[in-house]
Amino acid sequence: MRALLSDAARTLVPPRGDRHGPLPPLMLVLTLVTGVVDAVSYLGLGHVFVANMTGNVVFLGFALAGAQGLSALASVVSLGVFLTGALAGGRLGVRLAAHRGRLLAVSATVQTALLGAAAVTAAVAGGRVTTAVEYTLIVLLGLAMGLQNAVARRLGVPDLTTTVLTLTLTGLAADSGPAGGRAPRPGRRVLSVLVMFLGALIGAQLVLHAHLVAALGLAALLLLVTAAATYRLSAADAPWAPPTT
Fold first, then answer.
1. 236 contacts: CB under 8 Å, gap ≥ 6
2. Distance between CA 164 and CA 162 in Å, rounded?
3. CA dihedral over 237, 241, 244, 245, signed as positive or negative
4. Whole-angstrom Cα distance, residue 190 to residue 110?
5. pLDDT at residue 229 above 80?
6. Cα 10 to Cα 184: distance, rounded to the nearest angstrom
7. How distant, in Å, are the alpha carbons of 10, 93, 133, 196 from that of 184?
8. Which regions span the lipid bilayer (predicted)?
9. Which of 24, 42, 177, 186 is the most exposed place for a label (fewest CB within 10 A)?
């Protein structure tokens, strides 16, 4: 337990000279955003994910088999725009490969614009999720999450993918002491799971008891804070800026 708390503390407040600098806590904020956004998409846009593509592939199979309440078209559109966002994130990662801080700052800024546009779309719709509104939001959110996932891969911070927890949970169990492992970074892995859960809980509360605009506005605000903090912290000679090898 002491090791778990110590690792969690290092993730939230990295020591001076840490090779990932402020990236871990900033990426935990992105993980929180993912939970909020997937709550919006699943609960508010007809049972589709915009960040969890494993879920969409499974939903597509269910829908094609005739399962009720699922849309094959929505799953296909979400998969397509997520891949488009990931492609853009990959290209951005190549252009800004020399400085991880600038890469995160620019990508978070683009995501803020996409989430802001989604919040405006929901606000203009006045709470009515028509087919046009549904697919507009799926496109905007899917692009943002695909971009985030690709950039997280480029940043290369272990156990902080920001959108996928399957491997994180597997590592938490498979690398544990009872399994014969050394349990590297258990605190970071546990924090990642808890933060995703918290984002989903907050997002669900806002979607079910408030409005889509509230959840989307919160996600946009979190991304704006991430972008601003990263810009502020990203000195040209930051020791954590170069990509890991």
1. 99
2. 6
3. negative
4. 28
5. yes
6. 13
7. 13, 27, 44, 20
8. 26-45, 57-83, 103-126, 132-151, 190-208, 214-233
9. 177
